[in-house]
Amino acid sequence: PGDQEAGELGLAAVPGRQAAFRQGLEAAVHYARAVGCPRIHVMAGRVPLDTDRAAVAGEMETTFIENLRYAADLLSKEDMIGLLEPINNRITDPRYYLNTPHQAAAILEKVGRPNLKLQLDLFHCQIMDGNLSRNLEMYFPLIGHIQIAQVPGRHEPNSPGELNFPYIFELLESLGYTGYVGCEYAPKGDTLEGLGWLRSYWESRGLQHGGTSKAAK
């Protein structure tokens, strides 16, 4: 994430911070290796303060592509995947550089490395673009990780909001998604009580708690 006390939120697209980015990436790889985590979120970072986004867009993209190629080479030696997550700039972070899956997909195409993928957070995607079914279908080959939260409150999937998560989960299954779904939401209360939505979902699918089939028992 860079120097968060100084207002940084990632370094990969920030001009002039390439050395710090590489140092941070090496530390992340060290931690990921220790805990057996094969995927690392490579954070793009924020548009510098008092700077017009459009004026620096080209330089930031060039920096991002250069750093991502470096990251891909380093991660390939570890058999790891680098992930790019678009973060909405309407609610969460007005200055974050990478905002939509379309922008991320264009960057990934320019970088051209198979071990870099899209980390699609459906909360951010809904706020920026909506059209979740089509976006999931269109970008599915690029997706390396999914994250969820209800919109607009960013709470549990079964809390009041815009998204129909049972439908979304069935869509992911029909597309053949076999990866993890990260619960990147703020529980409205107790974390374990808040996971009641998951127990209910398992039961609706004929599964025991933990995702095992009742028939298999």
TrEMBL record:
<comment type="similarity">
    <text>Belongs to the hyi family.</text>
</comment>
<comment type="function">
    <text>Catalyzes the reversible isomerization between hydroxypyruvate and 2-hydroxy-3-oxopropanoate (also termed tartronate semialdehyde).</text>
</comment>
<dbReference type="InterPro" id="IPR050417">
    <property type="entry name" value="Sugar_Epim/Isomerase"/>
</dbReference>
<protein>
    <recommendedName>
        <fullName>Putative hydroxypyruvate isomerase</fullName>
        <ecNumber>5.3.1.22</ecNumber>
    </recommendedName>
</protein>
<feature type="active site" description="Proton donor/acceptor">
    <location>
        <position position="85"/>
    </location>
</feature>
<dbReference type="GO" id="GO:0046487">
    <property type="term" value="P:glyoxylate metabolic process"/>
</dbReference>
<dbReference type="InterPro" id="IPR013022">
    <property type="entry name" value="Xyl_isomerase-like_TIM-brl"/>
</dbReference>
<feature type="domain" description="Xylose isomerase-like TIM barrel">
    <location>
        <begin position="10"/>
        <end position="200"/>
    </location>
</feature>
<dbReference type="Pfam" id="PF01261">
    <property type="entry name" value="AP_endonuc_2"/>
</dbReference>
<feature type="active site" description="Proton donor/acceptor">
    <location>
        <position position="184"/>
    </location>
</feature>
<keyword id="KW-0413">Isomerase</keyword>
<dbReference type="InterPro" id="IPR036237">
    <property type="entry name" value="Xyl_isomerase-like_sf"/>
</dbReference>
<dbReference type="InterPro" id="IPR026040">
    <property type="entry name" value="HyI-like"/>
</dbReference>
<dbReference type="GO" id="GO:0008903">
    <property type="term" value="F:hydroxypyruvate isomerase activity"/>
</dbReference>
